[in-house]
Amino acid sequence: MSKNRVKLNICGSECVISSDDSESYVRSIGDEVEKAMDDILGKNDRISITMAAIITALSFCDEAHKSSVGADNLRSQIKDYLEDSSHARMESEEAKREIERMKHEIKTLRTRLSDDGEPAKAAPKEEPLPSKPIVPGSPVQRPQSGNYSRILPGDSTPEQDGFMSFFEKKNDEQ
User: Fold this and answer.
1) Hey, is 13 helix, strand or coil?
2) Torsion-angle region of 158 (φ positive above 0: left; ψ -120 to 50: alpha; else: beta)
3) Residues 100-141: pLDDT tens digits?
4) Contact, 40 vs 57, CB < 8 A?
């Protein structure tokens, strides 16, 4: 891109600016500086043009620094939001995998239970898992494998007969 040479007149002082920016942009910046200096000169008649230029430069420099700090804060917030979003996405994917695992487990259990009414075949005897103390606030441990069967009519134990007979007697008395 070629350099543009723009002649500016700010508060009676002429200067030539060489810039890669367009002529209209350079002129708009010059007009903004002249307006700011005129505002300062209009507020106090005893201020020189040099002092007005210094005050204007300080004002623009202050705005630039504050804008830079604001941009840095926004970048930091965006970075935090992106990290939060990433963590939430990972948790969501983990939850979806857990849901799929649980659906598969439910399907397997339903298949075992709907064995056309036949009692489930005895699974090979498993060694008991070592017992762990229950710690309050710890997650509930789920059995990894198990023996699932239905109790069919006539397959009850004496304890169950006594339990059921207790309710049957009560119902018969009414």
Assistant:
1) strand
2) alpha
3) 999 999 999 999 898 655 555 555 555 555 555 555 555 555
4) no
